[in-house]
Amino acid sequence: MYRVTSFVASLLIIVGCCATQSDITSPDGRATLHFEITEAGEAAYALAYDGEEVVPLSRLGLTTTEADFTEGLTLTSLETSTQSETWRPVWGEYAEIQNNYNALTATLTDAEGREIVVEMRLFDDGLGLRYTLLGQGTAAITSERTEFVMGDDYLAHWIAGSDDDAEFDYVHTPLSQINAETMAESAGRVRGLIDCGVSTPVAMKSLATGNHLAIHEAALWHYPGMILAWDRANNRFTSLLAGDAEVKSEVTLPFSTPWRTIIVGDRAGALVESNMVLNLNEPCKLEDTSWIKPMKYVGVWWEMHLKVSTWDCDGAYPHCATTENVKRYIDFAAENGFGGVLVEGWNVGWGRGERFDYTQPYPDFDIEELVRYAAARNVTIIGHHETYANVENYEAQMAEAYEYYAQHGIHNVKTGYVGTIAGRKHYDRTMVDHYNSTVVLGAEHKLCIDIHEPIHPTGISRTYPNLMSAEGMRGQEWQAWNSGNSLDHNPTLPFTRNIAGPMDFTPGIFDLRYHNTINKAAATEDGRVNADYRYDFFVNTTLAHQLAQYVVFYSPIQMVADLPDNYRQRPDALQFIVRVPVDWADTRCLDAEIGDYVVTARKDKHSEDWYVGGITDGEARTVEVSLDFLDRNREYEATLYRDGDKAGWDTYPTDYAIERRTVTSRDTLKVHMAPGGGFALQLQAY
Predict the structure, then answer these.
(1) Is 121 a member of any domain?
(2) Is the dihedral of CA 567, 490, 163, 478 positive or negative?
(3) β-sheet bridge partners, residue 172
(4) What is the SS3 assignment for 639-678?
(5) pTM of the model
(6) CATH number, domain at 445?
(7) Are residues 231 and 201 in the same domain?
(8) At what angle do helices 429-444 and 391-407 cross, to 10 degrees?
(9) Residue 347 domain flag
(10) Where residue 523 falls among pLDDT bands split at 50, 70, 90?
(11) Which residue out of 119, 273, 344, 477 is catalytically annotated?
(12) Is 303 a residue of the active site?
């Protein structure tokens, strides 16, 4: 990651006794930040966008065991500054990222002379703010009061607030309808739920102006994750810090909290295109990043969810991670140019109540032979470390386990934390430290990390780009052992979970009606669902929708999640997955309505080709895709993978058509998406 250009200017103002407020605007002038000290000595801010007060005056502050920085404060100085720089990520949605903002930094003093700093950065796409506790020694933070008063009864897209889970259904309601009943509708279970709260990122739309905003956090280090408590009477969210302990975080001074972020824009796509969460993180700390490789990968994974095999060597089904079976996946990856093979169930400890041993393979898994076999075919093994929430056992073995992978030439690991963690919450300070330690220690061993059951991402992949992806939402696996995800789930994710950072959704399922003898017998010969038979499990999309996920959902590592035999039955559709990149030079959200549909275009970082993906909810839609983002001086071969004329998620989900034609930037394509459907488009430059 390299800085291309940079410019910083600042002005320090010593505040007189009558100065209690200040305003700044964003570089493009569309956003305005107001900051003031109220008569009660409370720090407060307001945010306006295009003249709409999207966040009216909202209070700021935090408390420690020794100090209360929520009232009785005096403003002692203000510093304004301007930053303009361009930097290049190791991987990402853009080849270059603009980091331009105007900033306001306020130093505040309480009655005892203790100081706290409130730093605010106003970008064209929103606001980031954080606190810095000054002094020496340590401080024990007990609470934080960052308010987000809402300018209206916005339409919100949210999941239930929890400090222990995020794999919930999205709910789409006005803010006034966030209550216990709708929270239960989202969660479906109660582990770690916060009374009348929502998890971040939460996205909203102003019905009066069409402006959109999303609240989240950035640069989460040495601090609990944030949940938002909802106060209907005052139409406001207030930050809550995860965990049950009275002291939420003991920190070494001086200490800066994570940033609280509000992304704003005049359309839904502005949330997708924002880089503010990344920009609020520190630059890359790794001198050598050549070992970090974006890739598509296959996995010994989906077959266990389908009960074709199992993780345990002595389970009720055949063992998945045998040397012979893994070689089958390596061969398939090599045939199609996929970079890796994820192997779950390889190590001792599955299924018998044992502690996992992260350096002891099962007897039928020859790790040395498989690493050699994969390397000879230009494929890498992706290791797996499930903990079953026994974090202490994992922490005791991490250094040895990472060195074990390094010695075998393995540079990628997927971690997992299924279950309730004894004495901890998934998002409290102790677990934030743990997740981050896997990334830092992984970097020391040249190991890329993909975390499942994680804290939500907060952009630290800018600082440590070996944090490649994370789960943190209801992913595709829910389609295998549950009633599946709701039809509006996928068109919501790009504007909520995915704006936090890359997500390992595991796309690309081709066998959408599966998989046992009973289910196959219940379908007619042409694959149409038998209306008189209730399927236990099926994927609630069409095949074209699955292809589109590789463009619509962002991650620098994308799984090719289905079984190799299912792909071999549809080699023409597989070609889109073979060709689609995972590392991008540019990203445009062309058209969207959160929870309904989204159309996204991305440019390959290593060619002049573009790719477009579109997905819809349960409603059929026809979209017009203007190609005006293409180079005006080129022609392109367009290959369109669309829903077939009979397609529908609950009728003929595998009905698709492939069309080709020559196009230019002057063309507009009209594409029909079936219920639960979508399309994928490759635009190959001549």
Answers:
(1) yes
(2) negative
(3) 157
(4) EEEEECCCCCCCCCCCCEEEEEEEECCCCEEEEEECCCCE
(5) 0.95
(6) 3.20.20.70
(7) yes
(8) 10
(9) yes
(10) very low
(11) 477
(12) no
